[in-house]
Amino acid sequence: IAHIDCIYVVGILGENFTFPVQISQKIVEPVWKKNKDIVAEWEEQKNPTYFDPLRNRSVLMENGSLTIFNLEKDDAGTYMLQYWDSVTDHYLDFELNVLDSLPEPNINCSTNDDELVLNCTAYFQGSLSYAWKLSNKPQSYQNQELSIPLKHVGTTTKATCIIKFSQTERSSEISLIQCLP
């Protein structure tokens, strides 16, 4: 029985978490186990069956992917997907770690010469992706820091910093006028 390497995955408290299952072939009878106990299975000609602790808070798809709703700290652990591709049995191992909820990001602003500099910070155990959105521009900027020429700062312009980790986002907003000296 070939077990491929364990895939480390990280979710966030309270989010809906989907294991990153990528199987191209058609699969039959997927079974998910957590720490050796069956938590979800799909027998042929039947609907999926769920067991505690995932009963009523998970969904198993035909491609074998499993989503857990409203992730809890206790959901952390070792999961194994076993499935049959009509030739042989396959196993996918996942190690799920559950981190605390995302914090609200903090926005700091300062001015230098003819630019307004915005900085977004958030303290978190994982590496976050950052983005900025300006109320007067359609595009977003994928960066932790954003510089805007002062001449482009309108009296009603707002800036939003969005942090993202796993499948969860949090954001904070600031009115640029309050940054001006």
Automatic annotation (TrEMBL):
Keyword annotations: Glycoprotein, Membrane, Signal
Cellular component terms per the entry's GO annotation: membrane
Record SUPFAM superfamilies: Immunoglobulin
First-listed, main subcellular location of the protein, grouped into a coarse class: membrane
Coiled-coil region list: none
Taxonomic superkingdom: Eukaryota
InterPro entries: CD2/SLAM_rcpt (IPR015631), Ig-like_dom_sf (IPR036179), Ig-like_fold (IPR013783)
Subcellular location: Membrane
Name this polypeptide is given: LFA3 protein
UniProt organism field: Toxostoma redivivum
Gene designation per UniProt: Cd58
